[in-house]
Design brief:
The structure holds two protein chains of two kinds.
Chain A (H helix, E strand, L loop, with lengths): L9 H40 L7 E9 L6 E6 L5 E6 L3 E6 L8 E6 L6 E6 L7 E5 L3 E12 L6 E7 L7 E2 L7 E9 L2 E8 L4 E10 L6 E10 L7 E4 L5 E6 L2 E6 L7 E7 L7 E6 L5 E6 L3 E10 L2 E11 L7 E4 L5 E5 L4 E6 L4 E7 L5 E6 L5 E6 L2 E8 L7 H5 L14 E2 L10 E2 L2 H32 L2 H16 L2 H18 L1 H24 L2 H6 L5 H28 L3 H8 L9 H25 L3 H9 L4 H30 L2 H6 L17 H8 L8 H37 L1
Antiparallel strand pairs in A: 1-29, 2-3, 3-4, 4-5, 6-7, 7-8, 8-9, 8-10, 11-12, 12-13, 13-14, 15-16, 16-17, 17-18, 19-20, 20-21, 21-22, 23-24, 24-25, 25-26, 27-28, 28-29, 30-31
Chain B lengths: L1 H6 L2 H31 L6 E6 L6 E14 H6 L11 E8 L10 E5 L3 E5 L4 E6 L5 E10 L2 E2 L4 H46 L5 H32 L3 E5 L5 E5 L3 E5 L6 H17 L2 E2 L4 E2 L2 H32 L4 H13 L4 H24 L14 H26 L2 H9 L4 H30 L2 H6 L26 H11 L3 H41 L1
Antiparallel strand pairs in B: 1-2, 1-5, 2-3, 3-4, 6-7, 6-11, 7-8, 7-9, 9-10, 12-13
Helix pairs in contact in B: 2-15, 4-5, 7-10, 7-12, 8-10, 9-10, 10-12, 11-12, 12-15, 14-15
Classes of the chains: A alpha+beta, B alpha+beta.
């Protein structure tokens, strides 16, 4: 429709109105979305961190009524937690489906090839998944339920089978072929060992090493047997997977043997290990086999491991856990983590983590006594045989190692002489005890920031005060942007210079740095004094407010002199080598990349931030304030200290806060200018590892969703909150100040 | 009197002035040092021949003097040198770059000046820049063309042969990366296509046959190209040069490994300038060699620019819309004020936090979902569920969003309200006023914000280490293979290049000048961007100040 000049077209207006509304709506929606996206950072970090503080959950999945009232010597479950198996005393292995629609059905029953009558049975460390039968002819047969996964027609089918780790060969433990009453074994990598109690009460340690015959290529077994002497009855036997330690419990005594060399088995320690007014009822090895867990009949479970002492490495009681009061406590450990489960004869299940001393879960899972128990390979399910039923429970316990105390308090880690703050997140082995103390890296962050501030604050604030208050305005117009441009300099360049240029320079010219610190102020005051002595004519040539340009040659000369005399000073005072002097005479270790380097480099990065904000604050102090003070007869300096700085102090405070925020979060400089060792030491000659650098180093390698990954997110979250709060306080103070000025 | 003087506070004024001097000296000194060390690397320095005797066995050393330092005599004596014949307090020590890496244990060595019996700069000493094992220094003895010794004009012919070999090598490389790379890329795509059909249960015989014929066809093409490649390589291997090195032994250098040859001691000043410029050109346009410690930084420049441009495309609309909303539409109340403070403060959150967020949210969550939905055939290897250039750009966009918002808002608030009122009074709607009057007037401010954002993004390294940067990317994110822009690829970055070469490379000494040169490049770009931004901002302020009166 064409518009008519006489008849204004409302239609057009309506479309304009619509456009206006549309723009308002579109821009508002867009703007709000962008702001929400920024908020998302906060919530996403929180979302990733949150699971580590969730408590463990245990939920029943399925009950399977067992067909025959058999006695089971071992139970287990495969990795997908779909199939459970039970090994009976007669040598049958029953496989049950425990997941999906057919849950509860018996899939298959297999028989172990046994050449003899079963007299005893034992199981290996959980992660090996092996079981063994002791026979009446002094032999031991190893067996391992295993699972073949196939994909016919794109569907996963898991079929159970039995495999024999030693190719079905039975180990002859007792040469006298007496029945084996009780035993423990380990077959791991190239080491195989059995400790067995025979029917005639002899305790035999036997080691089997497979050696390939050079000529025939046949495998021959080299067997070493040692009889061990122990007074009293023998209750339990344990052997570590690497066969270096063997434990024998006899009532309340635990005998520890060094079985590293099968030909030279040595008793190294006897522990009287029961708690006060209690007796030992159970023993177990924790994952990694460094810790011995002992259960007492008052329900207490104690952890013991080897600690360096004056008389060599000795087992020592580290900590104890209160479990349910029950006289029959059994301990089961996980595959790789330091989690352990306790069961008892009244159906209680307890879940604990040793390192963080966490009591994760406790509850009643059956009416009667728990007869058998097993943990799934991925620790996401447990199996229980009780009341003639096989029950599967799903366990949600992804991050047992993270607790408040584990992150922030001293923890006694396996093999360490005392409780300590350690950050050591990964290692080559699966059963590594992760050490997640945030204390050393938080300490490093604070240390780095402190040294940076120590360097930056005096220089930046003095420079800001001078530039804002004394400097002539034409000079200020050049100086301010020059210093501010520093803020844009990529920190990777500062870090690179700090690491590759400054660090070696400081190492070789340490006296020069000290000399600079002493000589520079002295030279400045000296120059100032000499300046007053100059004839007035010369003084007037240079206008007021150009002091800093006058001082540039002075600083350069002092710098040059300091470095020039550095070698001589070193020669004269420290026998030509300061580093050696520090190490030998003062006992200080000197890292090339140390806090001094970081302090200077990071201070350098922080100076422009502090300078810029502080300068603004001082410069915008209303002129009538200082003019009034000067008119009343105060000197420039008095006016500055008593009037200007006092008025601008909130702004200066906010400048320092901003600088601190930047120093805390700086990554590249710390990464490149320190050795990144998480040590706790205030020494200026040693390095540190900061939260930010730690994230940069470890994040790319950490497994998604693992505790390590989430703790790194936690570190990022801490940094986020910390800097955000600091900046907000600073910004708030600044805005208040601006309002105050405008009302003056 | 001195007491009086101290009381007046004048010395303290001088002290604060001194702090400014220190800041200025360190800023300018730092920039000057980077510039000097970065630029002097390309100058063809003299190659010296030294006859050593004394604390070391009698020998000849040929190389460039890299560094000099004064060492206290006592320290050297403590280290086991016998220097009783000299009575100075300090002994000069020279760092010599001897090159010839495959024949000597170390291509850098310290030489005491007291050991130098004789030193000269013979005009016929040649420097060979090689594609493997770094530089080679020595005297040209014979030039061999296709097995025959060149009798006349050997040196001119040598230049000619080197140029020929370089050209052939370039051609071979183009072939390998261009046509052969294209075939490999297509074969890989066909593998994924086939797997995709299998997953959808749609792999019919017809499709199978189609794929097979195409594959056979590609293999045929590949064979032809491969033959051509081998032919080129064979041709490039034709010539050799025999050089006498500092041990006095004759070494045969195949010319296909030689990139350049020059006689620095025999160069005129202009020849040196020409060589200098060509070296800088090569630094900017070549690919890195030998674990990034030699060669150029072209892929890093390209990666940085590409990523930053991508980021600018993402950040500008969002930043501007958010700023317009905050300034024009949002209610003027305490909530808006708080939001504004929060946005400003996000600029102060450590960049590594953004990196962590980018890795978790963009790479694993968003990228992982994209892979599941659109690239099931590529599993288990991720396409977008792994760090890449798009995620880096997005992460840096979020990082620099506050910069753009703050700068644009400042620009908006500087526009005098009279201008707005005038437009509204003439009957324009708010949207029209915004679109026709306010935004165009604020565009320099938007530009400033964008430039500042780009400058910040170009210098950030820490977050990129988590979301997409690598030390050596085999392919650029932009190439001739469909769909031409590969947002999922990893990329190289100048800042990370500095970190990687300076701190992770096996031969830090050899790489150091290169790092300085890279640092200089990066600093120049960033400072230029910043100065431009500041210039625009100042110009804008002046303009609006005049509008107000």
């Amino acid at each position: 429709m064409s518009s008519n000049p006489q008849q204004p077209s409302f239609r057009t207006d309506r479309s304009r109105l619509f456009k206006d509304r549309f723009a308002q709506f579109g821009i508002s929606a867009g703007g709000v979305m962008v702001l929400i996206a920024l908020l998302l950072i906060f919530f996403y970090l929180l979302y990733v961190v949150q699971p580590i503080f969730e408590s463990a959950k245990v939920e029943k999945r399925v009950d399977v009524t067992l067909s025959s009232a058999q006695q089971y010597v071992g139970i287990g479950i495969e990795e997908q937690t779909e199939i459970a198996y039970l090994l009976s005393r007669t040598g049958h292995v029953d496989f049950y489906q425990v997941k999906g629609q057919q849950a509860g059905g018996l899939i298959e029953r297999l028989s172990v090839n046994l050449d003899g009558q079963v007299t005893s049975a034992a199981k290996s460390a959980p992660f090996l998944g092996q079981y063994a039968y002791g026979l009446d002819n002094g032999q031991v047969q190893l067996v391992k339920p295993s699972f073949l996964v196939t994909f016919p027609g794109n569907e996963r089918v898991i079929s159970p089978r039995l495999s024999y780790p030693l190719d079905g060969k039975q180990l002859l433990v007792d040469e006298q072929e007496k029945a084996i009453k009780r035993f423990a074994f380990s077959h791991y990598e190239d080491k195989t060992a059995v400790i067995a109690l025979t029917a005639d009460k002899r305790l035999i340690f036997a080691s089997f090493v497979a050696e390939e015959n050079m000529f025939s290529g046949e495998v021959e077994w080299v067997v070493e047997r040692t009889e061990l002497e122990i007074d009293g009855r023998i209750d339990e036997l344990l052997i570590t997977p690497d066969t270096t330690r063997t434990f024998v419990r006899s009532a309340n005594q635990v005998y520890i043997f060094d079985t590293r060399y099968p030909s030279d088995v040595e008793q190294i320690q006897v522990l009287a290990a029961n708690e006060e007014n209690a007796n030992l009822v159970g023993t177990s090895l924790l994952a990694g086999a460094n810790s011995l867990m002992l259960a007492n009949d008052n329900g207490e479970v104690s952890q013991w491991f080897e600690v360096n002492s004056d008389t060599g490495r000795k087992f020592q009681k580290i900590r104890a856990f209160e479990t349910s009061k029950n006289s029959d406590v059994d301990i089961y450990s996980e595959y790789y983590r330091r989690t352990f489960f306790t069961t008892n004869n009244s159906g209680d299940l307890g879940l604990y983590y040793t390192t963080s001393e966490a009591h994760l879960w406790q509850g009643k899972v059956s009416e009667g006594a728990i007869k058998s128990f097993a943990v799934s390979p991925r620790s996401n399910a447990v199996l229980i045989v009780a009341d003639d039923k096989l029950s599967v429970f799903d366990v949600h316990n992804e991050h047992p190692e993270v607790t408040w105390s584990a992150l922030w308090q001293e923890v006694w880690y396996e093999g360490y002489p005392e409780p300590d703050y350690i950050w050591q997140s990964t290692s080559a082995s699966d059963d590594f005890e992760s050490k997640f103390s945030l204390v050393p890296i938080s300490f490093g962050t604070i240390k780095a920031a402190m040294y940076a501030m120590l360097f930056a604050v005096p220089i930046a604030l003095s420079a800001a005060v001078y530039t804002a208050y004394f400097m002539s305005s034409e000079l200020r117009r050049v100086v301010k942007p020059t210093v501010e441009i520093m803020e844009a300099l990529p920190t990777v360049i500062l870090g690179f210079l700090a690491g590759l240029w400054l660090a070696p320079l400081i190492e070789t010219h340490l006296p020069a740095i000290v000399a600079l610190l002493l000589l520079l102020p002295a030279a400045m005051i000296g120059t100032a004094f000499l300046w007053t002595k100059l004839p007035e004519k010369i003084q007037h040539v240079i206008p007021e407010g150009w002091h800093s340009i006058l001082l540039i040659p002075v600083v350069l000369i002092v710098g040059w002199v300091s470095f020039a005399i550095s070698g001589s000073v070193e020669d004269w005072m420290f026998d030509g080598n300061v580093r050696q002097y520090l190490t030998n005479e003062l006992g200080l270790t000197f890292d090339q990349r140390n806090s001094l380097v970081v302090g200077i480099a990071m201070g350098f990065a922080v100076i422009p931030t502090i300078f810029s904000i502080a300068e603004d604050a001082v410069f915008s102090v209303p002129k009538h304030l200082s003019n009034g003070s000067l008119a009343l007869g105060a000197t420039q300096w008095q006016t500055l200290v008593r009037v200007v700085l006092l008025t601008a102090s909130p702004g200066i405070f906010s400048a320092v806060m901003m600088g601190l925020g930047r120093a805390v979060g700086e990554t590249m400089i710390v990464l490149m200018a320190t050795g990144n060792t998480p040590i706790m030491d205030w020494s200026i000659f040693q390095g540190m590892r900061t939260l930010a650098a730690n994230i940069a180093v470890e994040m790319p390698e950490s497994e998604v969703g693992s505790s390590h990954y989430r703790i790194l997110f936690l570190a990022a979250f801490v940094l986020f909150i910390f800097t955000f709060v600091f900046n907000t306080v600073a910004e708030f103070v600044r805005q208040q100040l601006r309002e105050k000025y405008s009302s003056m | 009197m001195v007491k009086q003087w101290f009381k007046s506070g004048s010395p303290w004024i001088w002290m604060t002035g001194g702090a400014v001097s220190i800041s200025l000296i360190s800023v300018l000194g730092l920039l000057a040092m980077i510039a000097w060390k970065g630029l002097s690397f390309f100058w063809p320095s003299q190659v010296v021949e030294m006859h050593l005797d004394g604390s070391v066995a009698k020998q000849v050393v040929i190389g460039e003097i890299y560094d000099r330092e004064q060492v206290p005599k006592s320290r050297l004596e403590a280290a086991g040198y016998d220097l009783s014949a000299y009575d100075q307090e300090f002994i000069e020590r020279l760092l010599i770059k001897t090159g010839n890496r495959e024949y000597v244990e170390l291509d850098f060595r310290w030489v005491l000046s007291t050991d130098i019996q004789q030193q000269s700069t013979p005009a016929n000493l040649a420097v060979f820049e090689r594609s493997k094992n770094g530089n080679f220094y020595g005297y040209v003895e014979q030039v061999i063309e296709d097995g025959k010794v060149v009798e006349n004009n050997a040196i001119e012919r040598l230049y000619e042969f080197v140029e020929r070999a370089v050209e052939l090598n370039d051609e071979a490389l183009d072939l390998q990366n261009g046509d052969i790379g294209h075939i490999n890329y297509e074969l890989e795509r066909m593998r994924l296509k086939e797997k995709g059909y299998v997953l959808d249960n749609a792999l019919t015989d017809e499709r199978m046959a189609e794929l097979q014929t195409r594959r056979a066809q590609l293999r045929e093409e590949y064979k032809v190209l491969e033959e051509r490649l081998f032919e080129l390589r064979k041709q490039a291997k034709r010539d050799q040069v025999i050089v006498r090195d500092m041990r006095g032994e004759l070494v045969t250098l195949p010319l296909y490994q030689v990139l350049d040859v020059w006689f620095p001691n025999n160069m005129s000043y202009f020849a040196k300038v020409g060589h200098y410029i060509s070296q800088i050109g090569k630094f900017i346009s070549d690919d890195p060699r030998e674990a990034n410690t030699e060669g150029g930084v072209f892929p890093a420049i390209f990666g940085t620019v590409f990523m930053v441009m991508l980021m600018a495309v993402i950040v500008t609309p969002f930043g501007v819309v958010a700023a317009i909303y905050l300034h024009e539409y949002a209610a003027k109340n305490a909530v808006t004020k708080m939001i504004r403070i929060a946005v400003i403060n996000l600029a102060g959150v450590p960049s590594i936090v953004y990196g962590v967020f980018g890795l978790g949210f963009f790479v694993y969550m968003l990228g992982g979902s994209i892979d599941q939905l659109f690239y099931p055939e590529a599993a288990p290897s991720p396409v977008f569920g792994t760090p890449g250039v798009i995620w880096s750009a997005l992460t840096l966009a979020i990082l620099t969003l506050p910069v753009v918002i703050v700068s644009t808002e400042e620009g908006l608030s500087r526009i005098p309200s009279t201008v707005r009122h005038g437009s509204l009074a003439l009957g324009a709607t708010k949207a029209e006023t915004l679109w026709r009057i306010v935004v165009p007037m604020a565009s320099p401010a938007i530009m400033t914000g964008l430039i500042l954002a780009v400058a910040r993004a170009a210098g950030e390294v820490a977050p990129l280490m988590l979301v997409g940067v690598v030390k050596m990317a085999p392919t650029l994110p932009l190439d001739g293979n469909f769909p031409y822009i590969h947002l999922d690829r990893k990329f190289m970055h100048l800042g990370f290049h500095i970190y990687d070469v300076g701190f992770q490379s096996p031969n830090v000494e050899a790489a150091r000048p290169l790092v300085y040169a890279t640092a200089f490049l990066l600093v120049t770009v960033i400072i230029a961007l910043n100065i431009t931004a500041i210039g625009i901002r100042n110009h804008l302020r002046e303009k609006f100040r005049s509008l107000e009166h």
